[in-house]
Design a protein that fits this description.
By secondary structure, this protein is of the alpha+beta class. The protein has one domain (10-56). The protein is built from 1 helix and 4 strands, in the order ββββα. The protein has one helix at 48-60, and strands at residues 10-11, 22-26, 31-35, 44-46. It has a 4-stranded antiparallel β-sheet with strand order 1-2-3-4. It is globular. The model has no long low-confidence stretch (mean pLDDT 86).
Length: 65
């Protein structure tokens, strides 16, 4: 797990303020993904190519979200 503790975590402007959102932090070599409801539980890390492929899949409807 990469140390992204000093990074600025952001969430979508479309998210509700109920604390049940996905937050993302970016560095040049890694993207951190965590749940806003429990940010101390840890995060997932993806490299930029993995994150881009995931976003492309979401946008194309590949995942049942």
């Amino acid at each position: 797990m990469s140390d992204l503790s000093d990074m600025t975590w952001k969430r979508s402007s479309r998210s509700a303020h109920a604390g049940q959102c996905v937050e993302v932090a970016r560095t040049p070599g890694a993207i951190g993904i965590r749940e806003s409801k429990n940010p101390r539980a840890g995060h997932l890390t993806a490299n930029p190519a993995q994150w881009s492929a995931f976003l492309d899949g979401v946008k194309s409807g590949r995942y049942d979200l």
